Amino acid sequence: MASATAILNRLGVTEIYIGGAGDTRTRLVATFAETRQRMFAHDAHRKAHYFPHYAPRRCLKCARQAVAAGRRLLIVGHSWGGDTALRVLRSLNPEFVDLLVCVDPVPKSRLNPPPTPRNARHIIHVDARPTRPNQSDSVKDLGQWIGGTLHRRLAIAHTQIVADLNHFAFAQMMASPDDNGLSAIDYINQLGDRFSRPRTANSSSAS
């Protein structure tokens, strides 16, 4: 007699989103993270958290708890949130994150630049290069004039995505495809599906 048994992967996946300097006002990343939280409201194997860029200790605590629980971990940082993501990653070392996504990141200081990411299994760098800049790009330009750029540190990224979008177009940048047609959110969803979905195993027994 054949029977099917659902085997749950107990690891699960934790997603951490870190907003930029203006996210308390624009809520670009906060809204994105809240949407993910609603998606996972009834899924114990997937969680999404949001932190502002000025809360690295809280973000690090959440990351450490996920690692300690054996969960797969991914971190997404936008603008100054990318700077915070790199610093959290360094503090998490020697533990690895499964996926790091830096979305048009901007460093906070030339004197104390964020480190090159070394403990991420996959790194995605989304770089906004708009043909029609707007005010948000002026904010980015000012930030880069003050803090410099992160292009050299993120040159080791496994996936580079150049988007014809403005700096504040966070959700659109997350959906921008790479050369293989995959976006950052596609990589995130693939990771979640791989380690969170119930798997079915067939077993046979003689009666």
Show the helix and strand layout.
Elements: E1 2-7, E2 13-18, H1 23-26, H2 28-39, E3 46-51, H3 56-68, E4 72-78, H4 80-92, E5 99-103, E6 123-128, H5 135-147, E7 159-163, H6 170-174, H7 184-196, E8 199-204
Parallel strand pairs: 2-3, 2-4, 4-5, 5-6, 6-7
Antiparallel strand pairs: 1-8
Helix pairs in contact: 3-4
Termini separation: 6 Å
* Low-confidence residue ranges: 1-9, 199-207
**Elements, N to C (H/E):** EEHHEHEHEEHEHHE
Number of DSSP E strands: 8
Features:
207 residues, alpha/beta, six-stranded parallel β-sheet, two-stranded antiparallel sheet, 23% strand, globular, disordered N terminus
Structural description of this entry:
By secondary structure, the chain is α/β, with parallel strands linked by helices. It has seven helices and eight strands, in the order ββααβαβαββαβααβ. It has helices spanning 23-26, 28-39, 56-68, 80-92, 135-147, 170-174, 184-196; strands spanning 2-7, 13-18, 46-51, 72-78, 99-103, 123-128, 159-163, 199-204. It has a six-stranded parallel beta sheet, sandwiched between helices. A two-stranded antiparallel ribbon has the order 1-8. Helix 5 links the parallel strand 6 (123-128) and strand 7. It starts with a strand and ends with a strand.
In short:
The chain is built from 7 helices and 8 strands; from the N terminus they run ββααβαβαββαβααβ. With 207 residues, it is an alpha/beta fold. Helix 3 (56-68) crosses helix 4 (80-92).
